[in-house]
Amino acid sequence: MEDPNEESLEEKLVPIFVPLATARGLIVQPMERQLDSFIRQLAIERGLSEAYQRSVRQTLDGLGSWMDGKKLSLQDIGTDELAEFLKTRKHEGLNTASLRIVTVHLKIFFRWLASENHLPMDPAEPLLAPRPDQTLPETLHLSQVVKLIESIDVSKDLGRRDMAILEVFYSSGLRLSELCSLRLEMTDLEDGFLRVTGKGNKTRIVRIGAQALEAVRNYLSNERPNLVTSKTSSHLFISVRGGPLSPDRVRQIVKQRAQQAGIESKIYPHLLRHSFATHLLEGGADLRIIQELLGHADISTTQIYTHVDRQRLKSIHKQYHPRG
Asked: How far apart are CA 233 and CA 242, in angstroms?
């Protein structure tokens, strides 16, 4: 789901395309030359990456090939022609996210053409980008979470640490980056609270449950001291060398523990965050409370979990109702 507070790519690029010579007559050039000039402007005046430049060129080369097949020049292109081109790309199998990107590329290119008097007007201005697909987050069943955590043997090396990591993920719904940045001074082991710094450098207080709290205490008392070196910082979760765990290493730990538990589906840290939120909602928690716990700036981001819950209810109804 898109962040409503985040600028669209098109909005970020608008300052490039202030009209430069609207009083002049049309300047007719081959499309290839105009495309080269446009890409140079993206690179020099805006400093956009080579990867983005290649992406734009790929879109516009595709438009050029389509125009050649239709025997059209740039002066023949109107809004209807651009809509037909997008429809063709969709039929070729381009997904919604990619179509949105192609639409932005067309809009910024044709806005530039009009501003440079290569066209009398901007035919792409009326185009509407397709609405993004609403992808429902994957979640684990409670039995899978229990199997994942309880399969860890805490008598073996790093068992206490890895159990504490999984317990904290599921109990608090932390983001991966938030878990990796946790420090000892951010944990209240008496009352079971974590002080978390999330997106936008915003701080929130997160509650962890009794089982997670016990796992963290066990790790701190019986395993972390053995991992500490002279260079160890106050990070809560540390490696065998005493340094803070990287996000990639935590992903690896979660994946390995899932494999050892015999769970065949792909398990990753954010899946535990999704499961935390979904299971709270299923248990009757208020959506505003879940929003606060997850650290979402906007309630619309949290509302995706209501769709997950509805999907679950529909599935149960269809399975068990005689006329489902």
From this structure: 8
Q: What is the mean pLDDT of residues 271-278?
A: 92
Q: What CATH number belongs to 9-115?
A: 1.10.150
For residues 26 and 50, what is the distance between their CA atoms, to the nearest angstrom? 30
What residue spans of 71-132 are helical by DSSP H?
A: 79-91, 96-115
* Measured CA distances, 295 to 174, 192, 272, 312 (Å): 9, 18, 15, 24
* Secondary element (H or E) of residue 193: strand 193-197
DSSP assignment of 46-69 equals S---HHHHHHHHHHHHHHHHHHHH
The catalytic residue positions are 175, 199, 270, 273, 296, 305
d(CA 73, CA 138): 46
SS3 194: strand
3-state secondary structure 197-254: ECHHHCEEEEECCHHHHHHHHHHHHHCHHHHCCCCCCCECCECCCCCECCHHHHHHHH
Q: What is the pLDDT of residues 7-45, one digit of tens each?
A: 445 444 444 444 333 334 444 456 788 888 898 888 887
- CATH fit for domain 142-320, picks 3.20.20.140, 3.40.50.2300, 3.40.50.300, 1.10.443.10: 1.10.443.10
Name the helix (H) or strand (E) containing 187: strand 187-188
pTM above 0.70, yes or no: no
